[in-house]
Each structure stands twice: as structure tokens, then as C-alpha cells.
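Response to reviewer comment R2.3. The reviewers asked that we include at least one raw input/output pair. We reproduce the pair for UDP-N-acetylglucosamine 1-carboxyvinyltransferase here without editing.
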Amino acid sequence: MKKLYIRGGRPLSGTVRVSGSKNAVLPIIAACLLSTSPCTLEDIPNLADVDTICLVLEHLGAQVKRDGTTLVIIPPQKPKTEAPYEFVRQMRASFLVIGPLLARTGLASISLPGGCAIGSRPVDLHLKGLHMLGARIEHGYGSIRAEAGKYGLRGNRIYLDFPSVGATENIIMAASLAEGQTVIENAAEEPEVVDLANFICAMGGKIKGAGTKVVKITGVRELKGVTHTVIPDRIEAGTYLVAGAITGGNILVENVIADHVKPVLAKLLEMGIDVYEEQDGLRVIGRKDYRAVDVKTMPYPGFPTDMQPQMMALMTCARGTSIITETVFENRFMHISELKRMGARIKTVGRNAVIQGPVALSGASVKATDLRAGAALVLAGLCAEGNTEVSNIYHIERGYENLLGKLQSLGADIWGQA
Ligand SMILES: CC(=O)N[C@H]1[C@@H](OP(=O)(O)OP(=O)(O)OC[C@H]2O[C@@H](n3ccc(=O)[nH]c3=O)[C@H](O)[C@@H]2O)O[C@H](CO)[C@@H](O)[C@@H]1O
Ligand SMILES: C=C(OP(=O)(O)O)C(=O)O
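Raw output as returned:
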């Protein structure tokens, strides 16, 4: 789809089911390369990023079969060792195959991911971790070549300068088949890291402490395929909670782990928006008048950077001055200029955005610059007066399954152009 059109002003109501988590499923699909037998993955969202990682695995020799929300991955007995730029260019998360490939074959050659709209996003911590496990790392011609050497990977103690999600995942995957014990200190604690660890443990791996700052991995000789259901997408859940709030609607968001969205819930409650836990999910009841709050993005369990643009859209309609401090990515404010086109009053000072509300947003032609920026503009369009046209929808399709259909089922006046 090329564009989304929204006629704003309708309070959303009804029930929406959250899909499987994009950020959990991508490393889990990469981890299938660690297995010597087929893996079955359940509740797989239909997303462009999932298609891309599946293409990477197929390129490396795996067979991938999809049936609805089930994905069967038959890993290759002898994987190829090279993932070219063609894939990494489309999706940075392709870099997650370096850890499992290195562990399984002793060699991995991957194009270096470039920066993207939200920041420069280096991979130094991934490489530092793999080097600490004994890999020789060479840079050249835009690629990274990692080689395990004669004795294979060996467990080690690795301190991460920053709790990088991807680096923690790559190191966990590589260490799962290494000789001896690896200890990751200052590891990322995100629920998606825990889901990956649970998957590897079900395959026969030995991982303790996932979800805390210290993760201990004892390498095993072989991992075998299992069936695993991925966790619900906490960012998609948060986005629908904001959709209910910003339209003054009443929505039940199903298939959500309340604990995973706690930082978002805390802010919605602080704003005076009603959110209740019900048997089947979380109910949000929006209101016309709600308070400004301050938000600082942090690694989990702090407020997720992936919810920052959506929260900013909500803040434009809150009473008073809200401040967002973005501490995770150095350039994640591209949505501001687009929100301003819709009437938002926002100033930036370094990594802080000062949002003055409430304003009555008005529809405009705006452009999604990245995935969550796109979601924020759709949310703004839902509450704006008049028509909003959001272009560059391919960004949104990376991470939201059937956003158009789900919003339509909640009563939004939204349609798409192919
Ligand atoms: C596919 C996936 O799961 N993506 C998520 C993952 O991305 P990703 O795994 O790329 O995010 P990281 O946690 O690694 O990055 C966080 C910060 O650390 C920096 N950094 C990271 C690695 C490194 O080697 N060196 C370095 O300096 C990054 O530039 C960034 O400023 O976590 C982010 C932070 O919650 C989310 O926004 C992304 O949606
Ligand atoms: C930044 C995101 O994803 P990725 O790391 O895949 O770019 C995101 O999901 O908001």
C-alpha cells in the first residue's frame, strides 16, 4: 500500500487483537539456524520484516513454509555463511544471523548495516561480544567477517557498555553453542530477549537470568527444533491503547501481557486516561481533557523508545506542557516536523521535545519517515479535524499487521491506496 487516508474525529470502539511480536519473532527466526531439526513457530505476524528475515534464512539454505500464522523452518545441515547487503539494507535486524551462523558454522560474513532515520545504530557491541567469545573479526568492503578459529567459540564474561537488545541477542545465540559458560553483564532486559532465551532453552539450551541484567549461558553441543508461540507485540498493544485514548474512544485490546506495557500504562494513567485490566485484555477509555506528562525513553523496564512518537501524538492534545527526552536513539524526532504540519506546537532542544497542548490538530498531507513515526501520524490523523493523507506506508507495514483492517474494525474512517 502506498498511502493511508483518514477522516478524523471518530471515537474508536470495539475489540482489537494484538499480533505476535515483531521484535521477538525476528531473533527467534534467526535462532532457528542454531537447530539441527525443524522448528515450528506460532502466532507469526504477517509483516514485511518477517518476510525479509525469512528470505535471509532461505538464502542461507533453510526451507521456510508458512501456513497462516504458523511458520515451519527447516534449517540447513550446512548453512551458507554469507548474508549480502541486499537483505541488510532492507532490514537492520538481518544482522541477527551473525551470532547463530558463527556458532553453527564457525564463519559468518555479513554486510554492515548502515544508519537509519532514527540514528546511526552501530554494531560495535555485537562485534565486541563475538570477539570476546573468541571470534576473529575483520572489516572490509562494507562487510564484517567473523571466524571462530580452530577451537571454536569459548564462553567468556562480557560487559556491555549499553544494554543493547540486538547485541544481547546475538551474544546469547552465539554462546548457546560455545564451549563453556558465558556471562553477559549489563544485558538488555527486554521481554523479547526473554522470549528468545525461552525458545533456545526449549531447544535444549542452558540460559539463566534472561530478563535481568546478568544472563548466564552454558553452551551445549546441539540444539533441536521445537514448537514455540511468540509473545504478543507490546508496541502494537501500546499503539492501540493510544488510539483509544486519543480518539476519546473505548477499546478492548486483547492478547497483551499487561506487565510488558506497564511503563506505557503508567503514563496513560498519569494523564488521567482510564485503563483497566479485564479478563481478555486491557480496556482503555479515552476522554476529551487529559493532563500533560513528562516521558524519558529508557531501556526496559523504562518507557520504550518505540512508543515515543505515538505518545508525542497523544501529548499534542493534552492540557499543559509535556516534555519527552529521547535517550536511546540520537535522531528519533523526525515525526515532529510532520506533526507540526497538523498544527502541533512542539519545540526541540537537543534530545528534548517540548510539546505545548492542547491543540486542535487539523488534517494534512504528511510523510511517514520510519515505522513508529508513521504510526504516530496515523494516530494524529484519527483525532484531527478533516482529512489526513499519510504517505510512505511501507515503513508502517514493516511492523503493524493489517493496521488498516484493525482500525476499520474499530470504526475508524480510514482507507488505503494501493
Ligand atoms: C528488531 C528489534 O528488536 N529492534 C528493536 C531493538 O533494536 P536494536 O537491537 O537495534 O537496539 P539496541 O538496543 O541495540 O540500540 C540501542 C542503542 O544502543 C546503540 N548501540 C547498539 C548496538 C551497538 O553495537 N552499539 C550501539 O551503540 C544504538 O545505536 C542505540 O542508540 O531495540 C531498540 C531499543 O529498544 C528498539 O527501538 C528496536 O525496535
Ligand atoms: C526501530 C524499530 O525497529 P528496527 O530495530 O527493526 O528498526 C521499531 O520497531 O520501532
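The mean pLDDT is 97. The chain has 14 helices and 24 strands. Further pairs are available on request from the corresponding author.
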